[in-house]
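User: what does the whole thing look like in 3D?
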Amino acid sequence: MDKKLQDLEKQYTEVSIPKELDFVVERALKQGRKKRKNRAPQWLLGSAAAAILFTASLNVSPAMARTLSDIPVVGSVVKVLTWTEYEVAEDNYDANIKVPSIENLDNQDLANTLNDKYRAEGKALYDEFITEVGDLKANGIGGHLGVDSGFEIKTDNDQILSIGRYVVNTVGSSSTVMEYDTIDKENEILITLPMLFKDKHYIEAISENIKEQMRTQIAESNQDKVYWVKGAGMADEDLMEEFTAIQPDQQFYISDKGKLVISFDKYEVAPGFMGVVEFEIPTDVLKEDLVSTKYIH
Amino acid sequence: MKTRNAFQHEEVFVQFIREQKERFYLLAYSYTKNEQDALDVVQDSIQKAMLSLDRLENVDYMKSWFYKIVVRTAIDFLRKHKRLQVTDDDTLQYLTPAQEDVYENVDLEHALDELPQMYREVVILHYFEDLKLADVANILDIKLSTAKSRLYKALKLLKIQLEDVKGESAHG
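Assistant: Here's the predicted 3D structure for the full assembly of 469 residues, as structure tokens:
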């Protein structure tokens, strides 16, 4: 090779490699693997044993003491409280995990199922974080590691309670996962996406509407927004993970105005910089498929 | 069949990433010029690749397939962030189309950095990452003839003798 080219190559490879690289790569591989496996979403993975252990440790450890802080919910009986909060604040490692708890539901089975799930997942998240910090320290690798998890009430009216839980993992960059539960407060049942519709046709109706919205947003933003969707100017082979259809049990919630909102995690249908994305589906698009207009109207 | 491929691919992929991670970082860095952003691009690329690994038909294509993901992710990243960042002169230079007269006399020390992105990426992928020009064209989504002419132009800007260009024939 030409001498100049060799010099150039030397310049190119002289860039110092940050020590976090190893960790970022391993972490991305691990998360990627998890995502591949999780394509069939695992609902209700909470095991009773884990929940009991967890409750016990809550009572023993002052660090895990129950911090019941009320979220002001005016005029409704069913409440969402912070069950517990895990906090780690070290130089390069910080975790803040808030575990919600739904209180005052008469339907104890429903309340227990949800609360056990929340607690088990919060605990698992904390354990995983501690293990990873341990690994990092043991290997003498520096770098920043953070996890931030909590919940937000998307809707709370006389009829509907939609609670969204998020997990943000930070290693240099971040990934975000969002999961929703929607409860019919009158009848005290958990609402799933399939049960809102007469048959499976809703998948197609919603998916087509989302694709349309994606294309419109891309065009209107002058290509600043990017979704992996066909027919928006991106060559087919550039679509890394083309969006074709929602999952039958895609994450969703019902807005205060009774609109269906579909949610996608970071990286699910768009490049990382787009973050978690949501689409409100116009009720007109759904009316043929809806079982009733009780929840969605 | 498909699933088994996917699992085999995953093993090969994980090994490939672990062995070559520094090369991916360098490539990402050549776009972002910033440590944190380059790490971000590497992470995004790996996750994207894992998700679409099932669609990779042949592991032989893994290298250029993954480089393509890195390049696209890096470009997406620049596109997103160019509005948010204060654009300094260097950034402007590599986002601006080539202006011949400016680059007529590059001094070698910063030669690569000063080369506009469209030329720099061809040089990096072909010479430093040792990819065939046809693969480079595929990765960058340009025609083979365009890749060739950019490479020649790049060498001209760098004042490198054309005789030294690796011919396509040498690569088969």
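In plain terms: The two ends of chain B are 31 Å apart (CA to CA). Chain B is about 70% helix and 0% strand.
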